[in-house]
Amino acid sequence: MDCLIAPKNTPGLTNGNARASHFTPMSRQKLVLILAVAVLSATAVAQISPGPLSRAHQELDGATHCTTCHKLGGGEPAFRCLDCHAEIASRLAAHRGAHSSYGIRPGSSQECAKCHSDHNGLDFPIVKWDTKKFDHKQTGYLLEGKHAGLECGKCHAPDHIPASERALIKVKDLKRTFLGVSEACATCHKDPHAGRLGPNCAQCHNFNAWKNVSGTFDHSKTRYPLTGQHAPVKCEKCHTPGPDNQPRYMGLPFGKCDDCHSDPHKGSFARQSCQSCHTTGGWKRIVSSGLAGNFDHSKTKYPLLGKHQAVECIACHANGDFKKELPFAKCMDCHKDAHNGQFAKRSDGGECASCHDVNGWKPSKFDMKAHASTAYPLEGKHAKLECAQCHVAKGRDTLYKVKFSRCMDCHHDEHQTQFAASPWLNQCEKCHTLEGFKPSTFALAKHKQTRFQLAGSHLAVLCSDCHKPASAFASASLLPASVAVQTEPTAGPAGYKTSTVYHFRELSCTTCHQDPHRGQFAERMRAPRADGTPAGCEACHSTKNWQDITRFDHDRTRFALLGAHRAVACIDCHRPPNLEMKLTNVDFTQAPTKCEECHSDIHGRQFAKAGGDTPCADCHNTAKWKPSLFDHDKRTAFALAGAHKNVRCADCHKLLREVEGKQVLFYKPTPKDCRDCHGTNPKFQPKS
């Protein structure tokens, strides 16, 4: 005993603490005896029962009933719950119900206390059940379909518990139990078939919808399997109400078709069954073996050949009347004229058989040979065309009598009216043939008839180098109005590309060629030729060769070419930028006009003017560099007289000196004394 706590109202105790000094020896002996008895009694009770039982087990309260629930002896406590709760024991033994899913061993009560503990007081809930969170799948019966949303009481009701189950249930108020309800459909639902189809409703129905039996009921297992068109028929079509006004599922006649169907032939085939010609796949699907075995159409006036063999009987024998005589001499006795009378004036009256046969509407028998007999025989590329490319398929509106006098009756104007005027008048045959759109027959001889006759190098230029799509031209003002608005090629009806330009508003060089001089000669190019048109590039060049510029008169510029300058190449004076080798980017307006701007000073600035360059023209001209025009008598202090007049320049001016890193002929100052040239030779000494 760990401690002893006395009652608060015990005489002689204050605040539960014993004070021995307040008692007499006699009273102390009595108190000890009373406390000892009380302690022993409390200890005995605590060892026998840990606390009062719940209200459900109240009748078992007391030390004399312990063995009803507990097994005595042994090391571990043992319970006897299933001895009383036989309804749970039977479910555990049968492995069904929610308790079976908790892993409780059949016949064992040891696991019961894990969920249902007792001795916790009279009002302690021994059963704790949250029906909203309970997973019904644990009972072995999954709630699915329309069962999933039902309230528990819809199924777990006293009137749904059979008498055999009630005897096993301990709870007297059956509204408080979930046991005893059978899983059979008839437990809750009334059997509309009155037991005629057995107790297993699930063999035909499901939990989602009562009337939907397609996913569960297998009619193929009955005496009349549903095949073909019978399969989608609704049940009530065959299972009609009987005398009791309930659908009949047994005893229905089905041996012959006319048990359900009326005879559409009105006795015409009384000796034959429906199955000899028809199947459940469809009324219009005729069994060929049935026809072959029972009805041979080849013995009639009209044997069925080709496509006619696949025609449904009713297509000819309307309303199933096989006794009525049918006309069949001509195709149009049965078939409508698909061509709306376009061939009615032919000698055969437009009879279909002249172009078609019973093997199929297509291909037609109207071939190339037959077409040759028409007003338009097919030749060249036309011979390879499909019929539908000219006779555009429009069903009954397809035209077979079409215009053909002009190419453009069928073909799109590839050139967008560029050849609509005289002399071409859009007559394609003047440039093209039936052998193909390309190559064109428009040769050089025909080009002479145009406003732009080909000459010089233009004779060797490909047509496509000049006649390009409109989008290739920078300015729409050069193009005809009919193509100027269309900048992107589009596909015409014949599959050709459109917008190629053949007529130009302006025939100057710049229509096709870019101006490499960027307008430097615009004024010269605007000058009129003899016919009044601007000279353009031909002011300087010719169509024979671009580099032929003999038409350019340099004398009409600020710098006329004279003398040796006539033989100088253009690029020697008109220097291209960036060390280029062509004159394409040259600025011709910036060409030098002074000698010293092109020629280097070979005299080392001995004759340079003050602060400037050496004026070459003072001594030389463009005819040639030598002889010099230098006037020795006027421009020097040493006039050439006497024998000096015939002396060569080099005889006196022969000394060299270095100027700016190079050797130049020395002119200034030149020695003037005789001895400077002649030395001490007496022959050249002056006489005294």
List the helices and strands and how they pair.
Blueprint: H1 25-48, H2 66-69, E1 70-71, E2 78-79, H3 81-84, H4 86-93, H5 152-155, H6 163-166, H7 235-238, E3 278-279, E4 282-286, H8 288-294, H9 313-316, H10 368-372, H11 387-390, H12 444-447, H13 463-466, H14 481-484, H15 522-526, H16 570-573, H17 595-598, H18 632-635, H19 649-652, E5 656-659, E6 662-665, H20 674-678
Antiparallel strand pairs: 1-2, 3-4, 5-6
Description:
There is one protein chain. Helix content is 16%, strand content 3%. The chain has 688 residues and is an all-alpha fold. The chain has a domain at 403-507. The strands form three sheets. A two-stranded antiparallel sheet has the order 1-2. A two-stranded antiparallel sheet has the order 3-4. It has a two-stranded antiparallel ribbon with strand order 5-6. The model is unreliable at 1-28, 34-46 and 484-497 (pLDDT under 50).
Structural class estimated from helices and strands: mainly alpha
Poorly predicted spans: 1-28, 34-46, 484-497
What is the radius of gyration computed over CA atoms, rounded to a whole number of angstroms?
64 Å
How many strand segments? 6
Order of helices and strands: HHEEHHHHHEEHHHHHHHHHHHHEEH
Helix content: 10-25%
Mean pLDDT value = 80
Major sheet: size, sense and barrel closure?
2 strands, antiparallel
The gross shape turns out to be elongated
Distance between the termini: 177 Å
Q: Helix count?
A: 20
Oligomer: single chain
